[in-house]
Amino acid sequence: MSGPAVGLWLFEPREFGDILADTVPWLESFCGPVEPKAGSDLDFWVRDGSAVGLPALDPAGVGVFFLSEDEEIPAEDEDYSAFSQPPVQGLVLGAGCSGPANHQMLGHLAHALAERLDTLIDFDGLLSHPAPRADTSNEVSLDRARALVASLPGRVTEVSYDTGNGRRWFRHVGDVEFLAAWLQHPGFHLVK
After folding, report:
1. Would you list the DSSP string of 143-161?
2. What phi and psi, each to the nearest 5 degrees, are found at residue 168?
3. pLDDT tens profile 161-176
4. Are 63 and 122 in contact (CB under 8 A)?
């Protein structure tokens, strides 16, 4: 079973090997083991959540995390017009399994890595609180998401993309200030 993932968008190109050279020693200071995988992916297990702001985290309740290159960034079907230039490179940071502890750790890892690597965070969808019901229209979901992000500090952008059925939908992409506020928001703590 796989868990949640976020994208990290870079606007200056970097060799993935250089990113790992910068990131692995930092990860090894609070994770173990940190294992390179085939294809340059990196798997790691968090031992000490205090390094990313989660001192009460029980590592037994958290699974493996991974960092890999996102070969789909920049994507041809995404509208990057809100940015002075499109992202030139992407990373994927993800959790191997779901659950509240994994979501919290992923959010805090994303914040720390985004600060470290000077990236924006692609939330891979719209953020909303409360979560939309199954019978809620797309417009209601979009209005709710827009109200949520407008209530938080930092910068967040809607990026539209093709849904595959001839329609367009949106994902949120934010900066570290926005992510820090979202990590403190009650809606974030309700994410399963």
Report:
1. HHHHHHHHTSSS-EEEEEE
2. -120, 145
3. 998 888 899 999 999 9
4. no
Distance CA 109, CA 116 (A): 10
Other C-beta atoms closer than 10 Å to the C-beta of 10 total 18
In the numeric block, the tokens 């990236």 are attached to: 119
Q: Which two tokens stand for residue 66?
A: 């991974």
Gyration radius of the chain over CA positions: 16
Summarised one tens digit per residue, pLDDT across range 63-75 is 999 999 999 999 9
Q: Scan for tokens 């990113």, then name that residue.
A: 19
Alpha-carbon distance of 72 to 91, in angstroms, equals 10
Residues 81, 21: Cα–Cα separation, whole Å: 32
* Torsion angle of C-alpha atoms 79, 85, 89, 92, degrees rounded to 10: -50
Which structure tokens are listed for 187? 């809606």
